[in-house]
Amino acid sequence: MNGRLAIYPGSFDPITNGHLSIVRRGLKIFDKLVVAILINPQKRPLFTLGERICMIKEALSREGDHVEVDSFDGLLVDYAVRKGSNVILRGLRALSDFENEFQMALMNRKLNRNVQSIFLMTEYKWFYTSSTIIKEAASLGGDVSSLVPSVVNHKLKEKFRQIKNT
Ligand code: ADP
Prior knowledge:
Layout: E1 5-10, H1 17-26, E2 32-38, H2 49-59, E3 67-72, H3 76-83, E4 87-92, H4 95-111, E5 116-121, H5 131-139, H6 150-164
Parallel strand pairs: 1-2, 2-3, 4-5
């Protein structure tokens, strides 16, 4: 598919409605997005890479060819170039996101001036939604069904049931 392509990187452990909103709004600007899962050996994710890929694919199945799900390690700017993109898309929630994102965007710019970082502000309803807080609530039996796609809600229950039984 030709046209404007952006990379949307993150951990997506797991994907939430906040992430989905950024993807859907991103597709109003770009023809195609690559949802790119960063393989970070320093983080211990709850879901395996394969599980995260499956959940994202299912949650975004309606977007068809407009969304590709992929994973990468190493430098994000190098990955973007390999994919033929010069845009990194990120979402912004609270002020706490800003500092981190600002630092990362400046570093990425230093590493490759041709790659631009662009940010979409979260929708207010997803302001407090993060994968971390969702995992915490779900681990304690909380109902997070309004914050995640149904496939994720189901997988969270399954995962914490498994953990409890081991
Ligand atoms: P990372 O570990 O790189 O922060 P995440 O999966 O937590 O990865 O997030 C990926 C991107 O999505 C980041 O830009 C993050 O700010 C954004 N994001 C996460 N949750 C939301 C949300 N509720 N609303 C808008 N953007 C979000």
